[in-house]
Amino acid sequence: MRAPHTTRTAKSARRKRLLTLLGALIFLAIAGYAVAAPKGPSVATPTITSGPTGATSATSATFSFVAGTRGDTLECSLDGAAFAACTSPKAYTGLRDGAHTFDVRERTRAGQAGDAASRTWTVDTQAPPAPQLAQKPADPSGANDATFAFSDGEANVTYLCQLDAASYAACSNPVTYKKLADGAHALSVKARDAAGNTGAATTYRWRIDTVAPPKPQLTQTPPNPSASSSATFAFADREVGVAFECALDGGSYAACTSPKAYGGLADGSHAFAVRALDAAGNRSAATTYTWSVLASSSGLPFTISGGYGGTLYPGKTGALALRVANPNNVPILVTSLTVTIQSGSTKAGCDGPANLQITPSNVSATNALTVPANGSVTLPSAGVSAPQVLMRNLSTNQDACMGAVFSFAYSGSSHS
Predict the structure, then answer these.
(1) What percent helix, strand, coil does the chain show, rounded to 5?
(2) Which residues make beta-bridge pairs with 307?
């Protein structure tokens, strides 16, 4: 049988338990301190010193870089692939079109990896399409300045322009060329993208013409004075391909063609004007003709119209088919007819009086032409011959007269 503990013995037991618990607490505190100990120094980030950036047409890329800490291992990654050990420079080939990202990081000898340095760029090997011309000069153009504006199917391109025989050079959009000479011109434009790809050229050709055509020549006019309330004008111009604008009695000019006829003219003075308009918009000075209408009067002069309808060549003679009209209520006897060759022609360098010769009609006081009241007669008629026109065979070169149109004026005398 055990003897009961004394009070002293019980106190000793409690002290031991207390010491044991204190020792456990000290151990735990030491262990907790060990777990919370600070980590080692952070890993440096490499520096990328060269490599592509932005857009490029190259399908290969080389990057140079330096480590932040001597002795650490470098690891590289392209487009999110797993990091692998690498050295500077690091080259890649066969890259596809599109965005790419290069990463490089350091790994310590203890195996700790640091933050990566990154470089992003875009590979673009596709040339932009040929530009479209949003603005261009007319063809032909009557202006010595020309403005062009462009657009392209690819955004953010710049443009290269070539005017005539000059070399391609960067140009603004729009671009204006000033003080260009008359004649033919051509502008070519190409688009170039941010990667340096240059597309095919778009070319526009046009002609500058700032010279007005010559004044038209009248090849048919009413007599002055005229017994008719209608009038017909025919005209031509030495510049090929022109259009015409006509005006009567100071009115506004309007497009017209030859011949141009007017009717219902009142008695009195009238004025006709015609000018030429070329394809470039240049207008000539006007040619005018003034005459008087006496349609409601008596004792009116007879009229002569017509001309030669065939082709003349050196040595060729032909009859002028003239129509003599009598506006009076009684017959008249025409006793003389005069044909005058007008100066010049529709071809520069070809003069009518120098190249043509007239043989007059045989009409005379003893061989008069009878024209009935309010009627007409076309020559030759009743023993009265028609005037003859001869193209002289000159010793000079007459090629300038090829295709020329000549003008004649007619006059005469008569009595009832």
Answers:
(1) 10, 40, 50
(2) 321
Report the CATH number that the domain containing residue 113 is assigned in CATH. Answer: 2.60.40.10
Q: Are residues 408 and 313 in the same domain?
A: yes
Q: What's the total number of domains in the chain? A: 4
H-helix segments, 273-415: 352-355
Which residues form the domain of 59? Answer: 47-123
- Confirm if 234 and 246 have CB atoms less than 8 A apart: no
Residue 113 lies in a domain: yes
Backbone φ and ψ for 112, nearest 5 degrees, come out as -85, 130
Which residues of the chain are under the pLDDT cut of 70?
1-41, 295-299, 416
Query: What are the φ and ψ backbone dihedral angles of 18, each rounded to 5 degrees?
Result: -65, -45
**Structure token pair of residue 51:** 């490599």
Measure the CA–CA gap between 312 and 193, rounded to whole angstroms. 65
Contacts (Cβ under 8 Å, ≥6 apart) of 265: 228, 229, 230, 231, 293, 295
State whether 151 and 139 are in the same domain: yes
Cα(41)–Cα(31) distance, integer angstroms:
23
Helix/strand/coil for 141? strand
**Of the candidates 135, 131, 148, which has an alpha carbon nearest to the alpha carbon of residue 198?**
131
Phi, psi dihedrals of residue 148, rounded to the nearest 5°:
-125, 140
- Kindly report, residue by residue over 274-324, the tens digit of the pLDDT: 999 999 999 999 999 999 887 665 567 889 998 888 888 898 898 998 999
259 and 273 in a single domain? The answer is yes
Q: Pairing relation of β-strands 332-341 and 369-371?
A: antiparallel
DSSP, collapsed to helix, strand or coil, labels residue 28 as helix
pLDDT at position 298 is 59
Task: Measure the CA–CA gap between 224 and 76, rounded to whole angstroms.
Answer: 102
Whole-number pLDDT of residue 389: 92
Whether 325 and 383 map to the same domain: the answer is yes
Sheet with 332-341: list strands edge to edge: 369-371, 332-341, 408-415
Q: What's the pTM value of the predicted model, to 2 decimals?
A: 0.56
**Distance in angstroms (rounded) separating the CA atoms of residues 325 and 371:** 7
Q: Is 407 part of a structural domain of the chain?
A: yes
In a domain, 42, yes or no: no
Of 209, 372, 192, nearest to 279 by C-alpha is: 209
Q: Does some domain include residue 4?
A: no
